[in-house]
Amino acid sequence: MIIDELNVPILLAPMAGGPSTPELTVAVTEAGGFGQLAAGYLTAKDIATRILATRAATDAPFGVNLFAPGPATPADRIAAYLAELGREHELGEARHNTDDWDAKLDLLTTDPVAVASFTFGCPSTEDIARLHAVGSEAWVTVTSPAEADLAIAAGADVLIAQGSEAGGHRASFIDDPTDDPTDPLTLLALLQLLRARTDRPIVASGGLATGAGIAAVLAAGAAAAQLGTAFLRCREAGTNPVHRAALPTDTPTMLTRAFTGRRARGLRNRFLDEHTAGAPAAYPEIHYATAPLRAAARSAGNTDEVNLWAGQTHALTDELPAGELVHRLAAETKSALESALSRRIKVC
Could you read off the pLDDT of 289-345 as tens digits, one per residue? Predict the structure, then answer.
């Protein structure tokens, strides 16, 4: 297992839409952690180029993350929401696609990487077998015990447990309002539930920004911790300036479908306040429809009309080189674990 070979139990979350770069992946990997490239929103040709650039800069193993495609959304489900947005904004085409799924799977089975990880669903048993046949591990992101059971049955080598604290999109297999949990599982709760039902390695993800937080999930049974928001302000990240500037604030976060049609956690702003209640479950249609207004907001430096994805601990982010951040977090984690072990525990 790749996780067992890491010098530092810290993984870079694959942040699609800009922040993920070969430079960031390499920096985390060279510091002893594990880097992943985000393939979401890219073509297979684009991600092949990024894989090549990453390999040119490091001999260490790394991973590539794919978005599992979902069904198309009926037009009548999104018509009212698009009409609402269209009264104020220029919209793009509300289209559905598979995010080049087949071509990306073909790429990863002809030019394999150490790990293929998956978000928004679980690949089939046959697809995971194809990855295993070329020497790749298959990691699946889950948000509930039921999803974990499906991933294990399909042959997943590692479960990435995403708690509700996490920034960006929820990785839930189904994002349907009728199936919404009223109380989505936090990371520590999810981790304990998964640890009680499987001995597969579990990577903990969601709201982790300090060594103490990493130590906590390791103590609870995680094999490693995956961090995304913590790396957004690193110089190697492709995070846009509007997003970078908004992170080190006390602005609260919230879950919303307003920008993309899929639940995601971001910094609260006017767009979220005005449109979260009416936003349908319609991904990726709403994502493409709102793309022009988000691009315009970024260009204008307007934080009220752009998706500022961030986890609940975003105020703790720092502007450091990624490798330096990994080293600092590793030292903090070691210190926190040693401190916890040194405390006296009385057993009655």
Answer: 999 999 999 999 999 999 999 999 999 999 999 999 999 999 999 999 999 888 766
For residues 44 and 104, is the Cβ–Cβ distance under 8 A? yes
Going by their DSSP bridges, the two strands 264-267 and 168-169 should be labelled as antiparallel
Tens-place pLDDT, residues 149-203 = 999 999 999 999 999 999 999 999 998 776 565 679 999 999 999 999 999 999 9
Beta strands in the chain (DSSP E): 10-12, 36-38, 63-67, 115-119, 137-142, 158-162, 168-169, 202-205, 224-227, 253-256, 264-267
> Measured at the alpha carbon of residue 148, what is the angle toward residues 142 and 153, in degrees to the nearest 5?
130
Instruction: Report in angstroms the alpha-carbon separations of 252 from 189, 277, 311.
Output: 22, 17, 10
- Per-residue confidence (pLDDT) for residue 345, from 0 to 100: 63
Rounded to the nearest 10°, the torsion over CA 68, 255, 84, 302 is: -100
Structural domains of the chain ordered from first start: 2-72+98-241+319-342 (3.20.20.70)
Instruction: Give me 282's structure tokens.
Output: 């319609």
Beta strand pairing status for 168-169 and 10-12?
unpaired
User: Positive or negative CA dihedral for 41, 135, 128, 257?
Assistant: negative
d(CA 17, CA 238): 9
Token representation of residue 205: 């993800």
Residues 6 or more apart in contact with residue 222 via CB below 8 angstroms = 9, 161, 191, 202, 203, 204
Both structure tokens of 166? 């996490």
Q: What are the tokens at 118?
A: 């998956």
Are 276 and 257 in contact by the 8 Å Cβ rule? The answer is yes
Q: What is the dihedral of CA 69, 21, 14, 134, to 10 degrees?
A: 70
Amino acid (one-letter) located at 118: F
d(CA 101, CA 109): 12
Q: Tokens representing 325?
A: 């951040």
Q: How far apart are CA 39 and CA 117, in angstroms?
A: 10
CB atoms within 10 A of CB 348: 2
221 backbone dihedrals φ, ψ, rounded to 5°: 115, 0
